[in-house]
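thought: fold this chain, then report.
action: predict
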Amino acid sequence: MQTWFYRLPSTVRALTSGALSAAAIFGVMSLCSVTEPWGYTGQSVTARLVVSIIAGMTGGVLGVVLGDQRTRRIYGSTEQAIAYLRALRTGQLPADIEPGTWHRWLDASRQSVKWAPAAVGVFAVLAVLQGLDRQWAVMSLFVVLALWQSVVTLVQRRRISRLATAVIATS
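observation:
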């Protein structure tokens, strides 16, 4: 996430995340209903919309609540998390850092990135399964998600390594 997003009130972040999640869920559900080999799936647009809104908003609220708890647990405050994310993105450390704290934050980032190959694997398996059913649009979606996750992971690993080198240099 961008650092500006963390500065927003939690209600706005939950609503924004929920709305974006609902739109994504609705899009995937609509794509699946259009690409079904037997045509009509019995789900009306209204039913897909209601399910998407409920699932998206639930996910948005839970994501913000759990994300804020994780942010406080790992970084101590939103401001410290923003400073860390900015340094991770730019590679430039703030003037006064505690190397022990930053090493702990880098370890948390490394731990998060460890799960990325599992996500890529899940997307790849889902793409293969959709290909077996000849649902090319859904398969393409999962291929794009697998590629996107791979690129994001490689970028994050490079950024973590660069920041770890900078932290060691200041120690």
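thought: worth noting. The CA atoms of residues 25 and 166 lie 40 Å apart.
final: tokens above.
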